[in-house]
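Re: export button greyed out
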Amino acid sequence: MNEAATPFQRFFRILVTVGPGGLWLFLFVLLPSLLVLLASFMTRGPYGELTGPLGLHNYLRLLESPYLQAFAQSLWVGVWATLISVLLGYPLAFYIARHPRRDLLLLLLLIPFFTNFLIRIYAWLVLLQKEGVVNAFLQAFGLGPFALYPSFAAVLLATVYTFLPFFVLPVYASVEHTDWQLLEAAYDLGARPFKAFFHAILPQTYPGLFAGSALVFIPAMGTFVVADLLGAGRVVLIGNLIQQQFGISRDWAFGGALSIFLMGFVLLALYLYARAQGERGFRELV
Amino acid sequence: MKRLLSLHALLVYLFLYLPILVIVALSFNEGRRGVRFTGFTLDWYRALFQDPRVLEYFLNTLIVAFTSTLVATVLGTLLALGLVRYRFPGKGFLRYLLYIPVVVPDVVLGVSLLLLFAFARELLGFPRLSLLTVILGHITFQVAFVTLVVRSRLLLLDPGLEEAARDLGARGLQTFLHVTLPLAWPGVAAGALLALTLSLDDFVVTFFTAGPGATTLPLYIYSSVKLGISPKVHALSTLIVGLSAFFLALGYALSRRRI
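Workaround output, generated via the alternate export path:
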């Protein structure tokens, strides 16, 4: 498009625009990832330093039962959080998109979303504590008080609470672009409401469903903060294991292997999911 | 059906707001523990404001947020422009690299940066974990988000406008400053706002890249929560909720006026 530009000018323009950002990504994304990969083949020394011998021993350790269990639990949190988000968020996205004051409803959705992540988790700690609101409510019916956390349910509840808006926003964007005439066409052709929705509306919202599910599933299974605060040792996810290795255990080699595994799993899951969605899924992804 | 949908929406909004409202109410409660409202007090706010550390953490948070947003917005805008306008070797790879901070869980980004800084310290003697390393970490995920937001805006623009500017004799930099940048401005502003929000909200990357003396508000909240529930954190949370609601509502009011 720059017919007038000489090759030198073109080179200079690319250098000025792409250069700084590209260098940044190289130094702070690519290089650290390669260092993690390198560390994952190394061994923890007596003082927690990284030394030889090199090998696959850290990856073999992933197959031991406590680590497999943490992986299963992460997957479980991710899947459940995504399913609950669909149940809560999918109808909500339709409600907002069809509402005359939808900008106001979106604003109301965004306020908790823009509130600091830790405060949102902290709020559940307060609600679920022994003298908390939930127990006070249950006691009014003569139940409890229960120790509601640390528990898997508490982790799941706070995870859904934290990431729900990530799900609603992309679905809302899809619903807004939905062609409702297809629904009328389906009715005219004699389809019953459920079937009409299933064939005429649902497929149109697939891009939003795809993006929203990925945006809930990935952070839900990757986070360590929610499980740390509301699982308090009872719920241990991959993220918690990684944090331990880089914190108190100071085994960076094993932590590296866990990180590479988590990163690989997420990228693979996204790739497969996008492929299942076909051409459109790929365009959403890249 | 319609009433069912309304009821569902009402319940979801209740689910979103109940926890926040409880915190706000408790921040004015005299009782230290429990949910029984024993009397109205501003003591927790007083204790918060009299704590000089909280002011320091607040300033640290702002320094990190504004510095990183400024750098990331410049880098991301230029990168988006280069990606949209030019072909060059390695472009496809760069696009993949851009998605890594967006899709990979932030704990992985955090530990990889920790490892990078440790290696650099071993080889070069710097950087010490400090506010600087936190800023470097924030810029890293912000650049990716800013680039994606600005790029989607640039893709909507008509390249004919730039050609017209050049036909009229504008040079490269003039075209950029007087044609491209003003047209891309909404994307740049949205990208910067997103970057600022992400920085203010970030806990995980900060957690792994901060050293002593580099405490931010999210780190402070985390360490106090680890020690147990405290009414001072209720008060701090209420202030933060109030501020974010205020700025969002302001943005909403301004965007309505423009239309």
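The two ends of chain B are 33 Å apart (CA to CA). The button fix ships in the next patch.
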